[in-house]
From TrEMBL:
The lineage of its organism: Eukaryota, Haptista, Haptophyta, Prymnesiophyceae, Isochrysidales. It comes from the Eukaryota. ANK repeats lie at residues 19-51. InterPro entries: Ankyrin_rpt, Ankyrin_rpt-contain_sf. The keyword Calcium does not apply. It holds the Pfam family Ank_2. Keywords: ANK repeat, Repeat. This is Ankyrin repeat protein.
Length: 108
């Protein structure tokens, strides 16, 4: 697809929008598991911080209730100990939002 073609041609996935979001943090937050997988295959930094919250893809996926993305990121080695500027971890975001499926993904 288009994303694969862009990545093969060297698209910089670490670029940030004016509010600090990356394409991958947005992909994780809206549950685009295939885009996250594609980015991981192309060597994206899995724990890259972005946005004013200094969140990671794992935090965005947990906060927005994307259990399949959470599980994929965990299996790829996402750091569960990192904290956003408010001191919350990805697991805390999932618990705080009442996202049981995401919390369960952390237990697998």
């Amino acid at each position: 697809g288009l994303a694969d073609a862009l990545l093969q041609r060297g698209a910089d996935v670490s670029l940030k929008s004016s509010d600090g979001a990356t394409a991958l943090s947005l992909a994780a937050g809206i549950g685009r598991e295939k885009l996250v997988e594609l980015a991981l295959r192309h060597g994206v930094e899995i724990n890259q911080r972005c946005g004013s919250s200094s969140g990671t893809m794992l935090m965005y996926a947990a906060y927005f209730n994307r259990p399949a993305v959470v599980l994929r990121l965990l299996r790829a080695g996402a750091d569960t100990k990192l904290r956003a500027v408010n001191g919350h971890s990805a697991l805390q975001f999932a618990k705080e939002q009442g996202h049981a499926a995401c919390v369960e993904a952390f237990r697998q």
